[in-house]
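Structure in, sequence out. Go:
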């Protein structure tokens, strides 16, 4: 596909039309994606993290699948019969280059691999018996990393296993329901009339998401948080008080008054967020929600 191809420019037009609303929103809100990208780069831009980025590409869909996507990329580059689809190989290179420069996490390129795996599967099928070897390699290698991708092990067992590093995201799914149970207990401890005006604030979007996911069955209202995307939905109405606060690393002394420690949580080791978290009952927010929101709202990885 050359630069003169009308399909190339049709694709560019479709991409621009799809990006336009996002770009407009980003520009109107001070380009928060760039701010968050800098935060991610600061945390994941170390040499060790970059080595981990490349290593994860080889096992992201299993070693067998890696054989297929490498075969697919090679065929897209070398075989003239695939020339019309060579843009997919270029897309893979561009995605990797952007994420290397911005220090994206290892799973960010996942969306580009299925089409490359499909190309490799076509090549393997055309080679006859090699198709069965490829299929067997995919199944065996996928089974090998299954504990890191599907919750077949307990959180404690996974944390102590050889799959611990690869299963970081899976490990962090543990401990949320007990956390919400403690939030619900703190919320129910607020006297009846005051409880009707009470709110829940969390310092992390993961905690807010857990309250919103598991809280309704426990009689909880939705949670507020200033972290990342949750910060766009605040501040809470001025009359929201008292506040059950889920806070990481210390006490929310700079933001809330009338603080009472309700429970310091001891979640599973596998989830760092539930390990260093405490639940507080607070009388209110210092200076009111609108003023405090300027300090409570933040972007971080």
């Amino acid at each position: 596909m050359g630069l003169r191809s009308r399909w190339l420019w049709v694709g560019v037009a479709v991409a621009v039309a799809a990006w336009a609303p996002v770009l407009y929103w980003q520009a109107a809100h001070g380009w928060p994606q760039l701010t968050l990208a800098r935060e991610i780069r600061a945390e994941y831009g170390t040499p060790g993290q970059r080595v981990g980025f490349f290593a994860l590409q080889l096992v992201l869909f299993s070693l067998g699948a890696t054989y297929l996507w490498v075969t697919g990329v090679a065929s897209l580059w070398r075989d003239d019969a695939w020339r019309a689809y060579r843009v997919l190989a270029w897309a893979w290179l561009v995605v990797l280059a952007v994420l290397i420069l911005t220090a994206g996490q290892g799973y960010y390129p996942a969306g580009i691999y299925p089409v490359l795996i499909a190309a490799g599967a076509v090549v393997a099928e055309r080679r006859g018996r090699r198709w069965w070897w490829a299929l067997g390699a995919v199944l065996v290698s996928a089974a090998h990393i299954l504990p890191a991708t599907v919750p077949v092990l307990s959180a404690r067992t996974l944390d102590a296993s050889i799959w611990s590093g690869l299963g970081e995201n899976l490990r962090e799914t543990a401990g949320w329901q007990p956390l919400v149970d403690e939030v619900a207990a703190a919320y129910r401890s607020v006297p009846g009339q005051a409880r009707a005006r009470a709110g829940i604030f969390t310092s992390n979007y993961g905690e807010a998401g857990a309250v919103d996911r598991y809280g309704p069955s426990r009689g909880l209202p939705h949670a507020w948080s200033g972290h990342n995307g949750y910060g766009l939905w605040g501040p809470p109405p001025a009359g929201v008080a008292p506040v059950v606060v889920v806070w990481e690393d210390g006490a929310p002394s700079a933001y809330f008054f009338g603080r009472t420690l309700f429970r310091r949580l001891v979640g599973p080791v596998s989830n760092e967020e539930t390990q260093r978290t405490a639940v507080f009952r607070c009388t209110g927010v210092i200076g009111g929600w609108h003023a405090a929101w300027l300090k409570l709202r933040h972007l971080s990885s």
